[in-house]
Structures are given as C-alpha cells and as structure tokens.
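Hey,
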Amino acid sequence: MKNRNISIITIGLFIGAIIGGVIGNLMGWMLPEGVVKDFFLTSINFDIGSSIGNEESIIVIDFKIITLKFGLSLSFNFTSIIGLATAYYILRFFR
C-alpha cells in the first residue's frame, strides 16, 4: 500500500464499511427476535458534537451575520467492521 493514493484507500474502506453495514441490517431484518439479531443490529455511534459536550451532536459557530453548523456521526455494527477488514485485506493485494 506504499504506492497508493490515499483517496483510493479511503474510498475503498468507506465502501467496505457501507456494504458491511447493509449486510448487517439485512441479516438483522431476516433473523427472528433473539440474541443473534441484537448482536447484528447493535451499533456503536461516534459523534463530533457530543464529544465536545453539545447534546444535539452538532457544532454551532454563530457570527451574528452567519451561523455555521458542523456535524459528523459514524455508526458501526459488527458486520461493518468485518466489511472494513475485508476491504483492507482486498486493497492490500490489488494495485
């Protein structure tokens, strides 16, 4: 991965996480109620705004003339992490 453009790596990992998340939601949709369904549907959320202390998960900068709002929220479940790992593994061998 030494000669790779960072944007290709980022896009590949992003697509792997998306595909893994979709597969996890489909598996959770098809499975009956129980522990396995909870395992695939339980996710970990990361918010930029909540880490600063804002309850709305957004960062607000008010200049009285213009107000800027920034926010980023990431949600990972088990299969999205597996998708990230698979995308990383595939990116290692294809140039």
